[in-house]
Amino acid sequence: MYYLMLVGLTGDANYNRVGEKWLYFSEEKVSWFKAYALCRTMDGYLTSLENKRVWESVNKHLKTNFSNDSWFWISGNDLASSGNFVWANTGTSMNYSVWSEGQPKTGKNCVNLQFTNDRYEMNNLDCHHFNYFICEPEHVDVPILDLERELQYEREYQRDRDLERAREMNALDCNLENEFNYTRRKPSGLPLNILY
Description:
Layout lengths: L1 H9 L5 E3 L2 E5 L6 H10 L2 E3 L5 H14 L6 E6 L8 E2 L22 E7 L2 E7 L6 E6 L4 H30 E3 L5 E6 L5 E5 L1
Parallel strand pairs: 4-8
Antiparallel strand pairs: 1-2, 2-8, 3-8, 4-5, 4-6, 6-7, 9-10, 10-11
């Protein structure tokens, strides 16, 4: 029941593909600690932006889909050791980071994304500040990734089927008496006319 209340707070818990990650973007503002807890109830964590490729795809998604005044919690923090920022879901050091000018500041322990200089950049804030947040799933199983391939096969199959139907419709010829004349080719290459 607690899970249902939390999903009610965050909207549906659907993850969307953004670059190489599956991400959930909240619609409610909460503290960093609450954001962390909410992501855990959705079998995920606050997201980590470990490299330039991930950073650029998330930045592009945020710029395209959210207003410039939307701030988002991510998993970065220095709660264990002041000045040593790590990703909460892995405990690894934040080796790749795009800090805003003058950041990080002393005494602010949790990392968020803020729109600055025509892009989203990292800032550290008081963890009790209310922001939107971004979750990523704990595990992305291979079937989720295979689903994209299967959908591509389905689209190709549908396209081929539609083309075949169009070819068949072009081969149909309706005469004035509403009799349908279907022209087919015999193996010898000679036309075979069948009246229906």
